Amino acid sequence: MLAIGCDHGGFVLKKEILEYFDKNNIQYKDFGCHTTDSVDYPDIAEVVCNSVVNGECEKGILVCGTGIGMSIAANKIKGIRAALLSDTFSARMTAAHNDSNVIALGGRVIGTELAIEIINAYLSTEFQGGRHKNRIDKIKILENK
Ligand code: RB5
Rounded to two decimals, what is the model's pTM? Predict the structure, then answer.
C-alpha cells in the first residue's frame, strides 16, 4: 500500500498520478489535499509519513510545487528517509542505496510522464543492503543524537 499526499501546488500532478494508479490497479491511500485551496505542506507530510512509520503504508509519495518543502518536512520525522526526485537515475539510486521510504515530487517542476517514470523506477528497485545498510544504521544514530 502506498501513501500519497499533496498541497495545492502538487494537487494537479497528484490527481494525474492517481489516475495512473487506478488504471494500473496500484493500491494507495490518499491523504489529501482534495482541492486547489491553499494548505500547509507540513500538515500533509506529517500524516503521510506517519502512515509509513506506523506501517499502515509501505512507502509514501509527497507532491508540492517544488517537492522541496515536502521533502524538508518529511525528513524531520523520525524513521523517514525522503528523497526529492526529478530524474529516474536518482529514483533507482535512492531505492537501492538510501532505502528511501518516501519520495517528494514537484508538481510545478516535472510533468506527469516523468513523474510516473520516476515512481515506477523507485518502486521497482530493491534496496541493496550491505554497506548501504551500515550507512542507514548511521543515519538512525543521527536521528537519536
Ligand atoms: C506553495 O505555494 C509552495 O510553496 C509549495 O507547494 C512548495 O513548493 C514548497 O516547497
Answer: 0.98
